[in-house]
Design brief:
Elements lengths: L1 H39 L2 H17 L1 H16 L4 H29 L6 H25 L3 H26 L2 H22 L12 H28 L2 H19 L2 H7 L6 H29 L2 H7 L11 H22 L4 H20 L4 H28 L1
Helix pairs in contact: 1-2, 1-6, 1-10, 2-5, 2-7, 3-4, 3-5, 3-8, 4-5, 5-7, 6-7, 8-9, 8-13, 8-14, 8-15, 9-11, 9-13, 10-11, 11-13, 13-15, 14-15
C-alpha cells in the first residue's frame, strides 16, 4: 500500500511539474512574441497588434469558463464526452459569431485601417474557445501529461503561427492570419488526442458556462485592472514604472497556476473539495511567499533587473505588487471551489470588487503608484477573505 501511495504522490509531482512547465512556456512564448513584434514593426503597427492581442485575451474568457464547466462535469461523469462536445461546438460558434458581428465596431474603436484584422481575430476565437473544451476533457479525466502536451502545442501553434505570419505579412493582419491557422491546427490535434469524440445531442448548459465565464472574466479584469487604472491616472513616467511592477504581480499570480489545474477535478466531489482546499491554498501561499520574499529583499533594484538600467534610479517598492498577485492566486483557488459547489454569490463578489477598485482609484487614491497598488492589493485580499468566509459558511450548513 505504501508503494502505491508513493507512486501516486510521485505521479502528482510529475503532473504538477509538466503543467507548470507548459504554462511557463506559453507565457514565455507570448512575451517573446511581443519583443520580436516590437522590433519588427513600426510603433503604430506594433500598437495595433498589441491592442488586438489584448482583445484576444478577453475574447478567450468563454473558453476558460467552458474548460471549468467541462472539467467538473467529466470529473463527475467520465462518459459524458459526446454531449459536452456538442456544448463546446455550440459555445464556440456563438463566440465566433459575436466576434464577427462586432468586428466593424472593433475596427472603429481601435482605429484600424481595415476591418480584416478584426475579422481574423473573430475567426481565431472559434478554435480557441473550442480548445477550452478539450482542455477540460483532459483536465477532468486527470490526464495531466496529455494536458501539458496540448498546452505546449497550443503555445507553439499560436505563437509560432503568429511569428510566421508576422514575418511573411509584416503587419498585424499577417500575424493574426498565422494565429488563426495555427489555432485550427492545434484544434485538430486536440481532437485526435481526446480520442476523436463525436457530438451527441444533450441538455444545454448555457447557464453554467455563462456563470463560469462571468466569474473568470472578472478575475482576468482584476489581474489587469490596476495596470489600466495606473495608465489612466498616473503621469507617463510613473505609469511606466508601474507597468514593470505589474510584471511581478503576474509572476506571483501565475506561479501557482498548476495547483488550480490539478485540484479543480477533485473539487467536483464535495468531500474531496473540503479536504483538499486548505492544502491547495497552503501550497499557493508557500510558492508566492518566495516571490514576496525576493521582492522584499531586492526592493526597487528588482525593477532595474526586469526593465534595465533605465530604471536604476527608481525607488518604488515592489513587494506590494507581489502581495497583490499572491492574493489573486488564492482568489482563483477559492473561485474554483465555489464554482464547483454551484455558488452564484461568488460572481457577485468578483464584480463588486472590480467596481470598488475602479472607483477607489479613479475617484480618490491615485496620487502615486504606491496608492494604486495598495488599493489593488487590499481589494484582492478582501476578496480572498470574502471567498474564505463563503467557504466556511458553506461547511456549516
Amino acid at each position: 500500500m505504501s508503494v502505491d501511495v508513493e507512486q501516486a504522490r510521485t505521479g502528482k509531482r510529475v503532473a504538477a511539474i509538466l503543467v507548470s512547465l507548459a504554462l511557463a512556456g506559453n507565457n514565455a512564448g507570448a512575451y517573446a512574441l511581443s519583443i520580436i513584434a516590437a522590433r519588427l514593426l513600426a510603433p503604430s503597427a506594433f500598437g495595433e497588434l498589441s491592442s488586438l492581442l489584448a482583445v484576444l485575451v478577453i475574447g478567450v474568457v468563454p473558453a476558460m469558463g467552458l474548460q471549468t464547466v467541462v472539467a467538473l462535469r467529466v470529473a463527475r461523469k467520465p462518459q459524458a464526452n459526446g454531449p459536452l462536445l456538442a456544448l463546446g461546438l455550440t459555445t464556440s460558434a456563438i463566440v465566433a459569431t459575436i466576434g464577427l458581428l462586432l468586428a466593424p465596431v472593433l475596427a472603429f474603436v481601435l482605429h484600424l485601417d481595415s476591418v480584416v484584422p478584426a475579422l481574423l481575430l473573430a475567426v481565431t476565437l472559434g478554435p480557441l474557445t473550442l480548445l477550452g473544451l478539450f482542455h477540460g476533457l483532459l483536465q477532468g479525466s486527470g490526464r495531466f501529461a496529455l494536458l501539458a502536451g496540448l498546452m505546449s502545442l497550443e503555445g507553439a501553434g499560436k505563437v509560432g503561427g503568429s511569428l510566421i505570419g508576422l514575418l511573411i505579412g509584416g503587419d498585424a493582419t499577417g500575424a493574426l492570419a498565422g494565429t488563426a491557422i495555427g489555432s485550427y491546427l492545434v484544434i485538430f490535434c486536440a481532437w485526435l488526442v481526446c480520442g476523436r469524440p463525436r457530438p451527441r445531442k444533450a441538455g444545454w448548459h448555457a447557464g453554467e458556462v455563462l456563470h463560469a465565464a462571468q466569474a473568470m472574466l472578472a478575475l482576468v479584469l482584476l489581474v489587469n485592472l490596476d495596470l489600466v487604472l495606473a495608465r489612466h491616472t498616473l503621469p507617463a513616467s510613473e505609469a511606466g514604472e508601474y507597468a514593470l511592477g505589474a510584471i511581478v504581480t503576474k509572476i506571483a499570480y501565475w506561479l501557482p497556476q498548476a495547483v488550480g489545474v490539478l485540484v479543480l477535478p477533485r473539487f467536483a466531489n464535495g468531500d474531496d473539495r473540503r479536504r483538499i482546499l486548505p492544502a491547495a491554498l497552503a501550497v499557493c501561499a508557500a510558492l508566492d511567499a518566495l516571490v514576496l520574499l525576493v521582492s522584499l529583499i531586492a526592493g526597487p533594484r528588482l525593477l532595474s533587473f526586469i526593465g534595465g538600467s533605465g530604471y536604476a534610479a527608481s525607488t518604488m517598492q515592489v513587494w506590494p505588487f507581489a502581495l497583490a498577485g499572491s492574493m489573486l492566486a488564492l482568489v482563483q483557488i477559492l473561485l474554483f471551489s465555489r464554482l464547483a459547489a454551484g455558488d452564484r454569490r461568488v460572481t457577485v463578489l468578483m464584480w463588486a470588487t472590480v467596481a470598488v477598485e475602479t472607483v477607489l482609484v479613479t475617484v480618490w487614491l491615485h496620487s502615486s503608484a504606491a496608492q494604486v497598488v495598495t488599493v489593488a492589493a487590499c481589494c484582492a485580499g478582501a476578496l480572498a477573505l470574502s471567498g474564505a468566509l463563503l467557504e466556511l459558511r458553506s461547511r456549516r450548513v
